[in-house]
């Protein structure tokens, strides 16, 4: 789905765009610097076919659009098996989930999806898992209008896509968990 244009928004740049004011996107598959949209191969498989991009570590970030699908543990397990099968054996990998949204109800749904994904990843044992929707990240981000795009009156106009300021705070909070995951998959 990374290479497919979203019919609602006309772009496929959810993981390759600028999310704050002056949004600009690079259409994945149309940019020669992103040569991973090839016939009969997923972008994850294709990245290992391009020598200059042969990664020493793969970091996969999920949630958002997959939240509905991963309310089912069976769906999360099946989807993760498909992803894990595309990783070459021995490739260090971290799976993380995204920044909480502005809305508590949506974060509750994301927590259920995250729990199902975590169980699938941990059962498979090929990657470390770092949950993004935690008590600490929710406390910092959820309901904090300063971390989301607002209108002139200060009302949040996009409760699902945090700003660069929230990303910075999220990484500050998540650094210990990310470092622990790195130590797990790349022993010193």
Mean pLDDT: 86
Distance between the termini: 35 Å
Radius of gyration based on Cα positions: 17 Å
Helix content: 25-40%
- What structural class do you assign from the helix and strand content? mainly alpha
Shape: globular
| Sheet with most strands | 3 strands, parallel
Question: Per DSSP, what share of the residues sits in E-state strands of 2 or more residues?
Answer: 5-15%
Q: Could you state the order of secondary-structure elements as H and E? A: HEHEHEHH
How large is the count of helical segments?
Answer: 5
Question: Could you outline the blueprint of secondary structure elements for this entry?
Answer:
Blueprint: H1 43-47, E1 58-62, H2 73-84, E2 93-97, H3 104-124, E3 128-130, H4 135-141, H5 164-185
Parallel strand pairs: 1-2, 2-3
Describe this structure in words.
The chain is mainly alpha-helical and 188 residues long. The protein has five helices and three strands. It has helices at residues 43-47, 73-84, 104-124, 135-141, 164-185; strands at 58-62, 93-97, 128-130. A three-stranded parallel sheet has the order 1-2-3, with helices on both faces. Helix 2 (73-84) packs across helix 3. The model has no long low-confidence stretch (mean pLDDT 86).
Structure summary:
With 188 residues, the chain is mainly α. Helix content is 36%, strand content 7%. Strands 1-2-3 form a three-stranded parallel beta sheet, sandwiched between helices.
């Amino acid at each position: 789905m990374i290479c497919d244009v979203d019919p609602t928004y006309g772009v496929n740049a959810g993981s390759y765009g600028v999310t704050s004011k002056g949004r600009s996107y690079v259409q994945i598959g149309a940019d020669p610097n992103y040569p991973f949209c090839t016939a009969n191969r997923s972008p994850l498989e294709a990245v290992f076919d391009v020598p200059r991009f042969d990664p020493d570590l793969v970091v996969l970030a999920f949630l958002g659009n997959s939240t509905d699908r991963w309310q089912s543990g069976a769906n999360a397990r099946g989807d993760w098996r498909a992803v894990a099968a595309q990783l070459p054996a021995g490739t260090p990998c971290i799976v993380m989930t995204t920044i909480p949204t502005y809305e508590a109800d949506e974060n509750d749904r994301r927590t259920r999806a995250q729990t199902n994904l975590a169980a699938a990843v941990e059962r498979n044992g090929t990657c470390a898992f770092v949950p993004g929707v935690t008590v600490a990240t929710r406390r910092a981000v959820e309901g904090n209008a300063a971390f989301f795009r607002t209108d002139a009156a200060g009302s949040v106009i996009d409760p699902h896509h945090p700003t660069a300021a929230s990303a910075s705070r999220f990484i500050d909070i998540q650094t210990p968990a990310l470092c622990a995951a790195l130590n797990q998959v790349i022993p010193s």
